[in-house]
Every structure is written in structure tokens, then in C-alpha cells.
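Quick one: Pyridoxamine 5'-phosphate oxidase N-terminal domain-containing protein from Nocardia macrotermitis, C-alpha cells please.
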Amino acid sequence: MAKEFDRLDERLREFIRAQAMFFVASAPSEGGRVNLSPKGYQDTFAILDDHTVAYLDLFGSGSETIAHVRENGRITVMFCSFTRNSRILRLFGTGRIVRPDDPEFLDLRTHFGVDHPGMRAVVVIDVERIADACGYSVPYYELVGERPVLDTHHARQPDEKFAHRIAGDNSHSIDGLPALEPDHPLPSGIPRPDRG
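--- reply ---
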């Protein structure tokens, strides 16, 4: 049955580190659409302390989570085991967006694996509730490997493309909430992997 935890102890940290992906849920304060996003790349999630986590936010097709967190801070992260030992772990909390032009961004980057092309922010979450569930109905899946498509795609994009995304499909949520602004710094301000 479900259990609540008062902190991210070592056993919970081991479970989180073992997961190849996580899910992020957010919603506007009133009306609008609930957003649920799958996140890959294991090295994009970090545990900062017993009650604080963060993840590296990469450019995608929209910016719902950023818009919702900017508006009300509410965010939930879910980890789900697809192996023999079933388990679901949810971290409920209040998030904040740290942009690449924020001095804190450079320090936060040290908590993640590699510099992924297309980094647009770090989402830092103050965790207020930690709870697990059985996950008995979650099917078994075997991990084949990480999908490199997003990194490969971003590495090929010119800076002008990112600027267009900031002013275009990443500027507002689908419900019209502000997300990224046109003056949002370009990824060129961050060391990027060789585009080779």
C-alpha cells in the first residue's frame, strides 16, 4: 500500500537513480489543460538535498511546464518502475524556473551529467510530499537504451532556430500563459557539445 516519506533517504535516491525516465505534471491555476510530460536522459535529473530536486529542461514542442510553474509553482514528478519490483514514486512540490542567464544556472549545471544541446532552463523543485504506490498494474518493460534523437536534433540547429522557438511555439503555453520571452538567452551562451 501507499506510504509517505519525510525525506529523500538513500533508498529512495537509489530507486530514483535506477529509473531511465520520469514524468512531470503541472496545470494552470484556473481552467486550462493539465500537462503531463515524459522526460528521458537519466543524467537530466538531480537530487540536490533531502527535500530539493531539479531537472534539466530541454527545448521541446511546447513549454507548458515552464508556463504553469511560472504562474503557480505547482508541479509533480513521478518515477515508475517497469522491472520485476513494481513501484511508483511521486514527488509533489513547488517549482521555480532558473534560466541560463541566472547566475545560479552555472552552479546547478554541475549536478547533471553532460551538457545537452538545447538546454533552456533548470526546473528546481522544493519537495513538500513524497509518496509511493504499489504499481501492481504497471507492465514489465526492458530498457533497450536511451533515444539520442533529441540531442542529435538540437545539435544540428542554428542559434536562430532557438531564437525563433523562444519567440514562437515556446513563448506561451497552449492556454496562452507566458513561458519563454523573446529576450530569453540563447543556448549559444552555454558551452555546447561539438556539432561535428
